[in-house]
Amino acid sequence: MKRDLHNHTVFSDGINTAEEMVQAAIAAGLKEFGISDHSFTSFDPGYCMPPEEYPEYVQTIRFLQKKYSGQIDLKCGLELDYYSDDVPEGLDYIIGSIHYVKCGEELLALDASPELFAEVVEKHFGGDAYALCEAYYATFADLCRKTKADIVGHFDLITKYNEGGVFFDENNDRYRKAWQKAMLEVLPDIPVFEINYGAFNKGLRSVPYLSEEMQIFLKEHGGRTIESSDSHSILTIGKFKR
Ligand SMILES: [Zn+2]
Ligand SMILES: [Zn+2]
């Protein structure tokens, strides 16, 4: 069954309305489609959904669910960042994502730009990218408690600007140890990890998130994967194939 549960609309940083996205999902032949706009992060409000818009968000998607019920199974989800303050109720599912790393009192985005990524490594981790990776993956131990997620979002988002290994070697032992430990901590509570085509569809990466090696390790330890496009417009809905 073709489904895509990670999609953004104008309620957060997408460029199309929820209805335009649903219509495009139907046109793309999807049977199940989920909208998962960004939860509110008070320290970085630019791209996400203010809490006062949650009710309208849920109402809109519930309305569309009925309107298109004969054509597609529409779900109301949320991409909940680890550092969001609260977990809203009444959703069909939650994607738990970690977009930031804690540097002292600051929370800095890992997926904003290669320049910011380089700055975080230099300024906050003394030039040691593996130390940043270790800090990032250590956060996952608490992902379930913080987000109550059903799906782990783009687990290796930290590789967004690492095409060709420009910041770190993904075969390095410190890197592997950090993600394996995190995956084993998350798995008993959240056994479903995304294969996320967001950066791939933008041409930033040659492979989707959840590296081949991670996919194998996950399956060996009883986890499952779900493909998603992480679409921010109608153009990439349901686009999974490499
Ligand atoms: Zn995300
Ligand atoms: Zn997303």
The computed structural class is: alpha/beta
What proportion of the residues form beta strands (DSSP E)?
15-25%
Low-confidence stretches: none
Give the averaged pLDDT, no decimals: 96
Number of helices in the DSSP assignment: 8
Spatial shape: globular
Distance between the termini: 18 Å
How much helicity do the residues have? Answer: 25-40%
Give the SSE order as H and E letters.
EHEHEEEEHHHEHEHHE
Task: From the alpha carbons, calculate the radius of gyration and give it in angstroms.
Answer: 17 Å
The neighbouring-strand order within the major sheet is 1-2-3-4-7
The quaternary state of the protein chains shown equals single chain
Please give the largest β-sheet: 5 strands, parallel
